[in-house]
Amino acid sequence: MSRFMHLHGSAEISHNGHLKIGGVSTIDLAKQYGTPLYVYDTALIKERARGFRKTFKELGVKAEVAYASKAFSCMAIFQLMNEEGLSLDVVSGGELYTALKADFPPERIHFNGNNKSRSELVLAVKEKIGCIVVDNFYELQLLSEITGEMKSKTKVLLRVTPGIEAHTHDYILTGQEDSKFGFDLQNGQAEKAMKLSLESEYIELLGLHCHIGSQIFETTGFILAARKMIEKAAEWNSLYGFVPEVINLGGGFGIRYTQEDDPIAPSQYVKEMILAVKEEVSRTGMSMPEIWIEPGRSLVGDAGTSLYTIGSSKEVPGVRKYLAIDGGMSDNIRPALYRAKYEALIANKADAEPEDTVSIAGKCCESGDMLIWDLPLPDAEAGDLLAVFCTGAYGYSMANNYNRLPRPPVVFVENGKSKLVIRRETYRDLIKLDESLT
């Protein structure tokens, strides 16, 4: 194994040079379930979930940690998060429906999103979910009508744009106003939404919500956002008597994909956010609100590994060597969309030193279907098993059937055992919605 390779969670190299995750050989997993295959290290997910909750508890702050389910949604992951005492952030009727079918407690479900339909809002109100994060005036009016028709009191947060945009290490104090999400905190939109919410008979305004970005490696943006939200809340308290019970600072905590990434511990994000809120509350004379956060990637991202079987190869002399796998942009579209980078190794030769530099090509009929460029690997041949790390977030949730490729299965592994939680799609699944002309 290359000295630059980083193993996550319970991943280890066995005595015979094979990659193991959760005490299970990836070679055995590939034989049992086939490839491509998503493998989740559930012990690592649990460790992360408990770490977030522990930090809030140790600092004596009332909080909710809501898993941002857009990172990876299925009944099994929702059940796991429920077992760990987390809340759930959903962004569609489909995610909400899945959560309800998984028996996730409705009172711990938060519903986000910028264009919720009437039917989605009706379902949320009917099921008495814990909170709806209202994004715009259209939705606020629609929700006011629905709650009035159903005579059902519904708790809401107002999503605001605090004027902070975070791109990893760069924090810009203006410009975030140009966003499809939320009420602007500076131009009076958020204040107008707050007053309309307070006037609505069946809407109970809990507080404010923001989300400043993704894959963030510093706490500066979160601290600035917390200060701006508390400052504005204090102003509204003085003018209108509004006291926020909740400040939701969203998610976006970064993880390590490659050696270029340098994330901080989740507990550090939480500690510095709490400190900022406490300082601003003390300065303004406000009462301490609950702090909610929405980690997604940081709970499941590096707990996921994708397994592929290597097939064909092509060498362009003096230019590049390509290795093709049996998956690609249909099961991991992030490299094509975002130029996302990953680390990988040959799972059945995990202790071998790199001998070559290759580029990993997907099997989709697109020249842009490249998973990893210029990857150091030992000598590889058809039939070898490639393990790509940190694919647990936005892999399966963004998977597709381009080229009519069936989506891969998902397994959870822990303590030497594996559990199939999503089966592999079949060709029959691909045509189940099709209607024949004859």
From TrEMBL:
Signal peptide stretch: none
Query: What does the record list as GO biological process?
Result: lysine biosynthetic process via diaminopimelate
Coiled coil start-end: none
Where along the chain is the active site annotated?
365
Q: Where are the transmembrane segments?
A: none
Known function: Specifically catalyzes the decarboxylation of meso-diaminopimelate (meso-DAP) to L-lysine.
Which HAMAP family does the record match to this protein?
Answer: LysA (MF_02120)
Name of this protein: Diaminopimelate decarboxylase
